[in-house]
Write a structure and sequence with these properties.
The chain contains 11 helices and 8 strands. It is α/β, with parallel strands linked by helices. It has a single domain, classed as Alpha-Beta Barrel (TIM Barrel). An 8-stranded parallel barrel has the order 1-2-3-4-5-6-7-8, surrounded by 5 helices. Its EC number is 5.3.1.1. Pfam families: TIM. Belongs to the triosephosphate isomerase family.
C-alpha cells in the first residue's frame, strides 16, 4: 500500500516566533493522531530545520529540505548537502521544484543528479514535475512530464521505487488556480503509466502527490482520486487552521 503524504513547502517564509507558534498549534491539532501509512512533512527554509527539529518532540511530523546540492562536499558556496539535511533531522527533500527549475535553470539532468544524491544520503527525494500553461495548451504536457520522469528514472536505475513524485502544474502554483480534479487524476494516472514502463512494482509502490494552490476546501475531493496519494501544500501550509484541516482530510479519507 502506498503511503499518504501531506507535504508543507514553506518556501522563503518563517521566523523563530512564527515557527514556535506553528509547531504549538500543529501539536494541539494533531496531538494523539497516529497512522502508520500517513506522513506529514514540513519543508521550511534550511536555516530553521534545527530549531523545528528541537520543537517537534512527539508530534507526528517529519522534516524535509526544500532543495539539496548534487555534491556531497567541497567548494560550493551557499549549497546544502544531503548529509547536512540528514543531520538536521530530515527524512525527505524536495527536488526540482518548478521555482528552482525556472529561476535557477535546473535541468532535468541536474534534478536527476540531486535525486540520486538524496538517496545516497538516506533521504527520500520528492521529485517535482509539471507543465506550463503554454505546454498544456499546445499539447506538449505529456511529453514534458515524461521527459522529466525519465531523466530521473534512468539516472536512479534500481532505486526508482524509493522516490516520491509530486505533480505540480506550474500554471496553478500560487495563482489561486487549481487543476480540475479530473485533470489532476488524469495526469496522475499518466504518471503511473510512465512508472509502469520501468516496473509494475514501482508503479504500485511510488506515491504520486498533487501540488498547485491546494487548500482545505479542495483537499478532500483531490484525496478521493485513486491515483492521488497526497498533497504538496504551499501558501495554505503557512496557516495552521488551513493546514490542519488538510491533514485531517487526509487522515479521514480512503
Amino acid at each position: 500500500m502506498r503511503n499518504r503524504l501531506i507535504v508543507a513547502n514553506w518556501k522563503l517564509n518563517g521566523n523563530w516566533a512564527f515557527n514556535e507558534m506553528m509547531i504549538s498549534e500543529l501539536s494541539a491539532g494533531l496531538g494523539g493522531v497516529q497512522s502508520h501509512d500517513h506522513e506529514i512533512i514540513l519543508c521550511p527554509p534550511a536555516i530553521y530545520l534545527q530549531q523545528l527539529n528541537g520543537l517537534m518532540g512527539d508530534i507526528p511530523l517529519l522534516l524535509g529540505g526544500q532543495d539539496l546540492s548534487e555534491h556531497f562536499f567541497g567548494a560550493y558556496t551557499g549549497e546544502v548537502s544531503g548529509q547536512m539535511l540528514k543531520e538536521l533531522g530530515c527524512r525527505y527533500t524536495l527536488v526540482g521544484h518548478s521555482e528552482r527549475r525556472a529561476r535557477h535553470q535546473e535541468s532535468n539532468e541536474l534534478v536527476a543528479l540531486k535525486a540520486k544524491a538524496a538517496l545516497a544520503c538516506g533521504l527520500i527525494p520528492i521529485i517535482c514535475v509539471g507543465e506550463t500553461l503554454e505546454e498544456r495548451e499546445s499539447g506538449k504536457m505529456n511529453a514534458v512530464i515524461q521527459r522529466q520522469i525519465q531523466s530521473v528514472m534512468e539516472c536512479l536505475e534500481d532505486d526508482i521505487s524509493q522516490v516520491v513524485i509530486a505533480y505540480e502544474p506550474i500554471w496553478a502554483i500560487g495563482t489561486g488556480l487549481t487543476a480540475k480534479v479530473e485533470q489532476a487524476q488524469e495526469v496522475h494516472e499518466f504518471i503511473r503509466g510512465v512508472l509502469r514502463e520501468y516496473s509494475e512494482l514501482s508503479a504500485q509502490k511510488i506515491s504520486v502527490i498533487y501540488g498547485g494552490s491546494v487548500k482545505a476546501a479542495n483537499a478532500p475531493i483531490l484525496l478521493e482520486m485513486p491515483d492521488i496519494d497526497g498533497l504538496l501544500v504551499g501558501g495554505a501550509s503557512l496557516l495552521s487552521s488551513e493546514f490542519l484541516a488538510i491533514c485531517l482530510s487526509s487522515l479521514n479519507s480512503k
